[in-house]
Write a structure and sequence with these properties.
Strand content of chain B: 25-35%
Number of helices of chain B: 10
Order of helices and strands of chain B: EEEHEEEEHEHHHEHEHEEHHH
Largest interface: A-B, 24 and 31 residues
CATH class of the largest domain in chain B: Alpha Beta
Strand order of the largest sheet of chain B: 8-9-10-3-11-12
Radius of gyration of chain A: 22 Å
Largest sheet of chain A: none
Shape of chain A: elongated
Helix content of chain B: 25-40%
Radius of gyration of chain B: 19 Å
CATH superfamily of chain A: MetI-like
Oligomer: heterodimer
Largest sheet of chain B: 6 strands, mixed
Low-confidence stretches of chain A: none
CATH architecture of chain A: Orthogonal Bundle
Helix content of chain A: over 70%
Shape of chain B: globular
Distance between the termini of chain A: 60 Å
Number of helices of chain A: 10
CATH topology of the largest domain in chain B: Rossmann fold
Number of strands of chain B: 12
Distance between the termini of chain B: 29 Å
CATH class of chain A: Mainly Alpha
Mean pLDDT of chain B: 90
CATH topology of chain A: MetI-like fold
Structural class of chain B: alpha/beta
Chain lengths: 226, 265
Amino acid sequence: MLASWMTPGSFLFEAWQAREGLLAGLGVTLLSSLFSIVIATLCGIAMGVALSFGWWWLRLLARLYVDLMRGIPVLVLILFTYYGLALFGINIAAFWAGVIALGAFATAHVAENFRGAVESVPAGQMEAAKAIGLTFPRRLWYVILPQAFRRMLPPWVNTGLEIVKGTTLLSIIGVVELLLASQQVMARNYMIVDFYLLALVAYLIINFAIAQLGGLLERRFSYLRY
Amino acid sequence: MKDTPLLQARAVHKSFGEIEVLKGIDLTVRQGQVVSLIGASGSGKTTFLRCVNLLEEHDGGEILLDGDPIGYQVAGGKRRRLSETRISAQRARIGMVFQQFNLFPHLTAGENVMLGLTKVLGQGKAEARETAEHWLRRVGLAERRDHYPYQLSGGQQQRVAIARAVAMQPRLLLFDEVTSALDPELVAEVLGVMQALAESGMTMLLVSHEMLFVREVSHHVVFLDQGRIAQQGRPAEVFDNPESERLRSFLGRFHGLFGKALERS
């Protein structure tokens, strides 16, 4: 029985043959997602602070950035970061160009989510924090951020899912992530349905895991009620 | 000591856009005094209280705490806002209790009290925990130390908020209609805590609609009307000899509710 599954031409056999390429592709997908999410989260929160509390010129700059990023298709951004910047003599490896483009794009989303989350923290919280004499950075760190993070979680998980899906676009600039790796396998064995399905299941599993992690964090902070 | 003015307001003005809410408030609070602001809504009581703690910034006049101007400094004829750090330090010397409690929902009762102790006063964890426990015990909530705000009743939350404010050992405590958001049966426990604080010699400035309480605990009552002080004095003077028609009609509304009790007390 097992023998007939593992004969040349069967899905399992072909998948086993292609395992190294596919796993490498999966690794690139996971790494590029992880780096983009980290960049987007850190830069997004910093920009969100600027949007919510910055001096007027800083708010304006951040607003400009957010609106610009939201108005550009991610694919265009990726192509620009890779090919466009090269024209100015800035050569970035395809992988990093993709990570930077995705991170820069999602930064705008995180920044907006952060601003919304901060604004939904009741004004009395900031006032109470002022009243006990906390300085601005401490008001932010000990009072506002813990509450804003809880509200940011669901949209933040969404952004994470979008980023993972967005990494498929890196194939356009030649980054061999999971999708391109799968396509390379198909080019050899013409088992198109099987390997697209395999890729599809892999993406579903990654995103399911992220969603679960988000749910876990939400439960962890569930004491945050009013 | 009783004669050093702890808080002194001189000609304090405040406008929100076109609307002038405070039209020159002069007020002195001495150490150990309990001063109550009464008046109809919109008379400026809460705005004045918030100016004292710089939650609103007054546009004219000055407010002095122990002789130090709060929020602003006049140098060379120019009025300049103090740095954020200075302002935060000034706020730490003034405690405030809010109508809506404003406890930090992600922190337990004990942590709510400890936050300012550790991050503003620089106390160590152990010391802060001890201080917090002391004050939670004083407001009758020692056993609720590890409860989150949502696990407490409104009255309990407000008592934690009082503990949080008083644990900072402020020079002055501000109370902004602290019982207005409470169910009637929970008001007494909060007023009880406030009365105990007043009797312990804490200097307090409060805005309240609890006229019986105001009459009983205050040393000085100030009636605000349309952004001005219309009458002030000892509680008996203000309540028994209202000089203006407006104060008479304002008190009349409460007489309708408690009638005799207010006159007798």
